[in-house]
Amino acid sequence: MQVPPNYHIMAKPTGSICNIECEYCFYLEKHKLYPEREQDWRMDDATLEQYIKQTIDAQDNDYVQFTWQGGEPMMMGLSFYEKAVQLVKMHAKGKQITHTFQTNGLLIDDAWCRFFKKNQFLIGISIDGPEELHDHYRKTRSGKPTHDKVVQGINLLKKHGVEFNTLTVVNNENAKHPLKVYKFLKAIGSTYIQFIPLVEREKHTEGSNQLRLVLPHESAAKVTSWSVSPLAYGKFLSEIFDVWVRRDVGRVFVNMFDSTLSAWCGSSSSICHLSESCGNAFVVESNGDMYSCDHYVYPDHLLGNINQKTINQCKETSQAIQFREIKQHELTRECEMCHYKFACHGGCPKHRFSISEQGHPRHNYFCQGYKAFFEFSSKHMHTMKTLINSGRYADEIMLMLAYRESSKLTTTSSIGRNAACPCGSGAKHKRCCGKQ
Fold first, then answer.
1. CA 369, CA 75: separation in Å to the nearest integer?
2. Which residues form the catalytic set?
3. b/e string for 295-308 if b means 16 or more Cβ within 10 A?
4. In this structure, is the dihedral angle defined by the CA atoms of residues 88, 93, 97 and 101, taken in order, positive or negative?
């Protein structure tokens, strides 16, 4: 079993530079923080080598994961990553090295796929569902759709046997169609699915050099139109879970479902914003600036530059330590008393800008959605926990539910062949349980 890295240190070698312009992207405007890099935005070779050496040194165990993100990291060109792999081999010190790579998929070709396969990169593809949902926000700078090219890139990855997973941003549009999104992601071959809920707030007024999207402590701001509402997010997760728990346990891995089951079993979450504390997932900008989180790339949260101060020094500054501790120390009374605190620990600090029902500030925006999902899934989570604690497999729940629901069907009055199947799959009875 692989030991997870002590510290997750993501590199953004292109900074915020990207070849498409997603309307909801929180990172595109970060170029305003670095006006001097309008023309020279690429991570240079010296910074690349420092990032690699220091990331390896920062881990206390023998497992090191490099994460390449953006902007769009493929805009650096293939030779940059060939150099990175050589530098990793040079500085590895016998440690086990893996690479993950998050991309919009538009630039994937056979040469990239051969490189990914040879060096065992795990590729994350950003895709928000079928064409009409994905293209609603994820367009080129000229407003053209991107879905077809993303699917083309995925097909090339599959052709070359490159391992990939998908990242779907749950926004105000695709949240209305949970089963359509889930069915599509399975159809393209994704067996590990990340759902990231979208909420950003923007200032009422904006200066030309000011960041438009704000942090929780800034009160004069409004939630953007593309953000998903808390209850819509809870409903989105619940509807997909209702199908997943009957058909896909152990076959398709959904980050929110895995995290919740881990919490039920007394383990820590693999999702940083649902963990008890955060601040172990750093980001290094293209010029070497280091921040505690890529959602906190703001001047007030700069920890230092790895060309002047090592990653080990940056992560042990008082500012970094305070960032790690603040999550569990700033919970509202409702969070402290909540039956599901063990599963979300108050959520991401960046999302703590709401007022709780009892009037307490700094409450998590997604609280209602989390609760709705936790309550909906609790019965089945408890069953899977019991199975695991008994030395059995969680996927046995599918047989249990199928038996229970088929037993109900035998005592149910005649169901029309074209009627919706009572098992809750969403399919017609004749194509579902009626087929059995």
1. 36
2. 294
3. bbbeeebbbbbbee
4. negative
Q: What is the pLDDT along the chain (436 residues), one digit of tens a residue?
A: 343 446 899 999 999 999 999 999 999 999 889 888 777 899 999 999 999 999 999 998 899 999 999 999 999 999 999 999 999 999 999 999 999 999 999 999 999 999 999 999 999 999 999 999 999 999 999 999 999 999 999 999 999 999 999 999 999 999 999 999 999 999 999 999 999 999 999 987 666 567 888 888 787 789 999 999 999 999 999 999 999 999 999 999 999 999 999 999 999 888 988 998 888 899 999 999 999 999 999 999 999 999 999 999 999 999 999 998 888 888 999 999 999 999 999 999 999 999 999 999 999 999 999 999 999 999 999 999 999 999 999 999 999 999 888 876 555 555 666 777 655 556 676 676 555 4
- 239: nearest Cα among 188, 167, 168, 177: 177
- Expressed in angstroms, the distance from the first to the final Cα of the chain is 39
User: Which two structure tokens, joined as six digits, stand for 433?
Assistant: 């349980």
What's the predicted TM-score (pTM) here? Answer: 0.90
What residue has token string 């051969």? 114
